[in-house]
Amino acid sequence: MIGALTKQLTRRRLSWATIIAVGVTGLFILTFPLLFNRPFPQHVMILIFLFATLGQAWNLVGGYAGQVSFGHAVFFGMGAYTSTVLLLRWNVNPWLGMLAGAVVAALVSIIIGYPCFRLKGRYFAIATMATGEIVRLMFVNWEWVGGARGLFVPMLDESLLNLQFHTTKVPYYYIALVMLVVSVLVTRRVERTRPGYYFMAINEDTDAARSLGVDATRYKLLAIIISAILSAVGGTLYAQYVLYIDPDSVLLLHLSTRICLVSVLGGTGTLWGPIIGAFILIPMAEFTRVYLGGGGGGIHLVVYGALIMLVAVIEPGGLMALVKRLRRRGAQSAASEKGILSTPA
Which of 44, 93, 127, 192 has the fewest other C-beta atoms within 10 Å? Predict the structure, then answer.
């Protein structure tokens, strides 16, 4: 009875500690623009939220469904280009452009996904990589959307309705934060419903899932459609934030690789993995770019590679899997110590 009471009190302490930690973290994130009112820290946080959202989107396909994609920049670029072209050519509001970009990205994901999902493993990854490069080259040579020169987003009056703010980055900060929260809620919802279980079954063994009646192709397409929509929304926000896009900024293979690395480093197939990965990789890239200038342009790539190699050797499941393993070891050692202490002399 005493042991059960002690265990219950320990759980309560842990739950209260978790609540306090989450509350303090949430308060810090909400008040960050007030505590750090310089443009650069706010810019870094906006990129963290953006890439955490993109990593969360990639995670639905590459983590839960197990289909490693190197072409997610296509969906990001579709969102950026669709909203920008609509605003530039027909003066369509950016929020409506964001919705249109999500629809276009969803259609493109079906066009790309249906033939590519007939391939497995490394062949699927290579196919998505090749598809991404084909789309980029198409946009490089497509003059109607600016070609290699790219497009400047028209300057609008500063307001939430126009999704443009010229005197401060704070509104972009909170919009990116809301976008990240939405992506987490969507992932959580998928994770706890039938499609999420089907995604994980497909990840474990596609043939076994098919033998149990799971339509693998259908659910892979569902995963990539949701992923494409979230990525396109991020693309529209990015276009309105930087006010300039070109194929080498929103359709480049390097962008797809970075999105993938964010999720892989944090832990694929987990809810918090992409967020942890973004909080590690993005500040590292931005600080090396700013403080090392042109001479340090590739250093963050070296560190990327070193981190991924380290994670692959220590824990292939990413940092979240490493944390879980350390927790299990701590629980086992605590249990063994308790057993030793409770053993009668």
Answer: 192
- Residue 139 half-sphere exposure, CB side, CA atoms within 13 Å? 25
Q: Which two tokens stand for residue 15?
A: 């739950």
DSSP labels, 90-148: H---HHHHHHHHHHHHHHHHHHHHHHHTTS-HHHHHHHHHHHHHHHHHHHHT-GGGTGG
Find out whether 217 and 202 touch, Cβ atoms under 8 Å. Answer: no
CA distances from 169 to 46, 70, 241, 247, 325 (A): 9, 30, 9, 25, 39
d(CA 259, CA 274): 9
pLDDT digits (tens, 9 = 90+) for 277-329: 999 889 988 887 777 655 555 666 677 677 777 776 776 677 777 777 766 77
Tokens of 179: 């976008």
Q: Where are the domains of the chain?
A: 39-252
Backbone phi and psi for residue 158, each to the nearest 5 degrees, phi listed first? -70, 115
Contact 226, 190 (CB under 8 A): yes
